[in-house]
Design a protein that fits this description.
The chain has 303 residues and is mainly beta. Helices cover 9% and strands 34% of the residues. The chain is built from 5 helices and 19 strands. The longest helix is centred in the middle third of the chain and has 7 residues, at 115-121.
Length: 303
Amino acid sequence: MLLLTACGQSASTDPTPSASVSVPPSNAEVFTSVKVVDQGKGKAPTVTFKTPLAITAESMGVVSEGKGAAVKAGQAVTLQAIGFNAEDGKTNGDSFSDPAGQRIVMDDTFKASNPLVYSTFVGAKVGSWVAYAYPAAAAGATASTEPAVMTVFLIESATDVATPLSKPEGETVAPVAGLPTVKEDAKGVPAITIGDAKAPTELVAQDLIKGTGAVLKESDTIVANYVGVNFVGGDIFDSSFEAGKVATFPLTGVIQGWTKGLTGKTVGSRVLLVIPSAMAYGETGQGKAKGDLVFVVDILGVQ
């Protein structure tokens, strides 16, 4: 929803140094007329403002200060949001019916790509209402333009982020007969052998190592290492191990086999996913990933 997409997490946990990041002017004075009335947990607020708002540049500011602790650099904030056409005041949707909200880590990577957003949220108090707006934009070849938009955020919470594990930790689980087998090479990288396994007719999510960390929710953004192979042929089509860095991604933003297979698993686990094509990229595939797929996923943390 609006800026929630712009505030999405980077796909890397290797933050970019931010010492040279320049923070643009906040232009917070454009929100002088914005008034927010809280309607309670799970309900969108009542927001009023004089229209049209004179949005000529990216603008952001706290319009109602909360009573909680100040957000610290490096913490994860959970946000709810409601969006408006800044020119006529009509709402274009909100996220308040979703109890999970949107979780964003205020790290150096986010700071580098969203300096104004970062500098506004860090230091703001939990419970604050924060307005963000950007000006009208050309719609393309036509003479029409997309109207200026404003999003009003509620900072629901701010929590410290646990340092991800460097490798899976937990109790080794005995292999299950009939599934692809997994062995580590000399560097600790899992190698998948399809062997005599039969093609999957349903999703298999088998723990190889059972971690003792937090239980994953479907709304979580996780930190993981993984390797993926095609069931037919066993060729590797993707591997964070080969890329040399762990991956960070929301479970709502991956193939269905990952979302359903990893939800309910625990941090520290190594999980074997055997995924029918219908829960992956279909029979036509995507890139080198074709048909039924097999992954080994090391769940290293939650952001």
